[in-house]
């Protein structure tokens, strides 16, 4: 069991390094820049804080699962969508499609699709650390 956990942790670390090399750092810097611009305004502080949180997730995403819930803050997501959400959503979709053209780039493309969903509704995103799932072995009769 420990060997499986070690292999899974190594696999996630390799995916995180590949993510950084293949543009994850650019994604994180973009979220930081938008968050900084929003944080300068009084009404954009909540939006800016959420952008900083997402930028932290974008640096090392394969150890955490992010789930976006649109209806947890619909007004904030609506305000976010028109100036910034459309731009980030389209950018993440284009990059995800490009990576998914090859088998090797599919895990990176899958992560960009997840980032596109987060860009669509960043308020209500819940982050959970990925835990290793223990396999179930049924007892013999």
Classification by helices and strands: mainly alpha
**What is the CA-atom radius of gyration, in angstroms?**
17 Å
Secondary-structure element sequence? HHEHHE
Poorly predicted ranges: none
Beta content comes to 5-15%
* Total discrete domains: 1
Distance between the termini: 23 Å
Helix content: 55-70%
* Strand adjacency order, main sheet: 1-2
Number of strands: 2
Largest sheet: 2 strands, antiparallel
Number of helices: 4
Tell me, briefly, the overall form: globular
**Overall pLDDT level:** 82
What does the secondary structure layout of this molecule look like, with pairings?
Blueprint: H1 2-39, H2 45-59, E1 64-68, H3 74-99, H4 106-120, E2 125-129
Antiparallel strand pairs: 1-2
Kindly describe this structure.
This protein has 141 residues and is mainly alpha-helical. The chain has one domain (2-129). The protein has 4 helices and 2 strands; from the N terminus they run ααβααβ. It has helices spanning 2-39, 45-59, 74-99, 106-120; strands at 64-68, 125-129. Strands 1-2 form a two-stranded antiparallel sheet. α1 (2-39) runs antiparallel to α2 (45-59) and α3 packs antiparallel against α4 (106-120). The radius of gyration is 17 Å and the shape is globular. It starts with a helix and ends in a 12-residue tail after the last strand.
Question: In a nutshell, what does this entry contain?
Answer:
This protein is 67% helix and 7% strand.
């Amino acid at each position: 069991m420990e060997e499986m956990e070690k292999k899974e942790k190594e696999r996630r670390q390799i995916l995180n390094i590949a993510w950084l090399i293949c543009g994850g750092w650019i994604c994180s810097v973009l979220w930081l820049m938008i968050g900084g611009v929003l944080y300068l305004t009084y009404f954009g502080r909540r939006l800016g804080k959420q952008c900083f949180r997402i930028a932290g997730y974008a640096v090392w995403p394969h150890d955490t699962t992010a789930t976006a819930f649109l209806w947890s803050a619909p007004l904030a997501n609506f305000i976010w969508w028109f100036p910034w959400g459309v731009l980030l959503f389209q950018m993440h979709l284009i990059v995800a499609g490009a990576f998914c053209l090859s088998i090797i780039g599919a895990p990176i493309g899958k992560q960009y699709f997840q980032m596109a969903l987060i860009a669509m509704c960043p308020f209500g995103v819940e982050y959970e650390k990925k835990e290793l799932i223990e396999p179930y072995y049924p007892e013999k009769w």
